[in-house]
Q: What sequence folds into this?
């Protein structure tokens, strides 16, 4: 269950990062509210997953999902640049996440 909460927490990190971009510096109400609610849910689920998962593993997985998810959301929804170097960086992040999961005893 902790792993499911952690993955969902990471997905909510993507939601709040995307909505923060849409808030235009917290000047737009709806994206600002989505950002705050997304942060609260993301942090709460991260904290719950940390009850059983090691800090280093949980935090690394959470930030990795957020980083790669935000990278993909930026390309897909915002037309941000895609190039081989950025794609390789995302692959390396995902590789690190897999190694963290494999090395975890939980």
A:
């Amino acid at each position: 269950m902790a792993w499911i909460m952690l993955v969902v927490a990471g997905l909510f990190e993507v939601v709040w990062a995307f909505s923060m971009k849409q808030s235009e510096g917290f000047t737009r109400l709806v994206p600002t509210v989505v950002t705050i609610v997304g942060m609260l849910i993301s942090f709460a689920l991260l904290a719950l997953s940390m009850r059983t998962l090691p800090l280093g593993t949980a935090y690394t997985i959470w930030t990795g999902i957020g980083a790669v998810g935000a990278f993909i959301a930026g390309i897909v929804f915002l037309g941000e640049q895609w190039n081989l170097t950025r794609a390789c960086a995302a692959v390396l992040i995902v590789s690190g996440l897999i190694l963290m999961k494999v090395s975890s005893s939980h």
